[in-house]
TrEMBL record:
Species per Swiss-Prot/TrEMBL record: Spirosoma agri
Family statement drawn from the similarity comment of this UniProt entry: Belongs to the DapA family.
Entries under CDD domains matching the protein: DHDPS-like (cd00408)
Any GO MF annotation of the entry: 4-hydroxy-tetrahydrodipicolinate synthase activity
Protein name as annotated: Dihydrodipicolinate synthase family protein
Residues that hold pyruvate according to the record: 204
Pfam hit, one: DHDPS
Entry keyword Protein biosynthesis: no
Active site (UniProt): 134 (proton donor/acceptor), 162 (schiff-base intermediate with substrate)
Entries under SMART domains matching the protein: DHDPS
Keyword Lyase: yes
Superkingdom of source: Bacteria
Organism taxonomic ancestry: Bacteria, Pseudomonadati, Bacteroidota, Cytophagia, Cytophagales
Keywords for this protein: Lyase
Stored InterPro entries: Aldolase_TIM, DapA-like
Length: 306
């Protein structure tokens, strides 16, 4: 597993009748693969995983693994309240054909350090799949601290972190303490270029769902040291990236996907589609971005391999 590059946290597409829309899902997946993303993440909060049945999750995973056909790794997110259910999913993930796991701390319970360590260890020792921990104390109230990482680095399946503390300096803290032992992927769209410049290995992205080529371009340009070109795209992108740090990020990003021609607005209750002034405001941001979409530089040669 190569924890580097752009990993879209894909949205789940629904029909107007609240069924999985696999045709719309694979159309968006095509756009991601065509843009050159480096992996796919399923079952995150952006994917409305908490509203999906186990059967629906399995269908999405099997569909994605079959469709991707080994071109990029497919990563399954685990966000559970019970350790035994998280272990069950980890144990069954290999049979589903995924390449790795993204793992949140225990859900709906503010576990202490000993409990979080025991939870992570139970899952990490139940599978041979590589694991990326999701460190998002802002939204999920549990921080994977440096000391906790220190206790976890002896577990070989724990290999990476989705860094979402909102503290750019944490990239440097992780590097200073663990070197390259823990791969670092930025998990906050509005901090992505900053963290990549400071040495993050990748970007778990949200607005990539609507703007895959621009996201991949920023990543590859930064890694090639072409900072001025990356910065110009990033400045254009920022008003759109800010849609990722709102409680309604699912509705906002699905609206952006729809406007970009690679998605639908359908969400699953309790989420509801945007209406009225809120929808108009968000659509103005999206349409302004589309109207001023920058020409992308050539991504060939050494940049293609970055």
């Amino acid at each position: 597993m190569n924890w580097q590059g752009v990993f879209p946290a894909l949205t789940t597409k629904f029909t107007a009748d609240d069924e999985l829309d696999l045709a719309a899902f694979t159309a968006n997946l095509d756009a991601q693969l065509d843009a050159g993303v480096d992996g796919i993440i399923l079952g995150g909060s952006l994917g409305e995983a908490s509203t999906l049945s186990n059967e629906e999750k399995d269908t999405l995973v099997k569909t994605t693994v079959e469709y991707v056909a080994g071109r990029v790794p497919v990563v399954l997110n685990i966000a559970e309240g019970a350790t035994r259910e998280a272990v069950r999913i980890a144990e069954s993930a290999t049979q589903l054909g995924v390449s790795g796991l993204m793992l949140l701390p225990p859900m709906r319970y503010n576990a202490d350090k000993r409990e979080v360590f025991t939870y992570f260890k139970a899952i990490a020792t139940a599978t041979d799949l590589p694991i990326m921990l999701y460190n998002n104390p802002i939204d999920y109230k549990i921080e994977v601290t440096l000391d906790l990482f220190e206790d976890l680095v002896d577990l070989p399946t724990i290999q990476a972190v989705k860094e979402s503390t909102r503290d750019v300096s944490n990239v440097t803290r992780l590097r200073n303490r663990f070197g390259d032992r823990i791969k670092i992927l930025c998990g906050v769209d509005t901090l992505a270029m900053e963290e990549l410049v400071m040495g993050a290995d990748g970007w778990v992205a949200g607005l990539v769902c609507a703007f895959p080529r621009e996201t991949v371009a920023i990543y590859r340009l930064v890694k090639a040291g072409r900072y001025d070109e990356a910065r110009a795209i990033y400045r254009w992108f920022l008003p759109l990236l800010e849609l990722d740090i709102h409680p309604k990020l699912v509705q906002y990003i699905k609206l952006a996907e729809t406007a970009a021609g690679i998605g639908t607005e359908h969400v699953r209750a309790p989420r509801l589609p945007l209406i009225g002034a809120e929808r108009d405001r968000v659509l103005d941001i999206i349409n302004s971005g589309l109207a001023n979409r920058p020409a992308l530089p050539q991504l060939e040669g050494t940049l293609e391999a970055a």
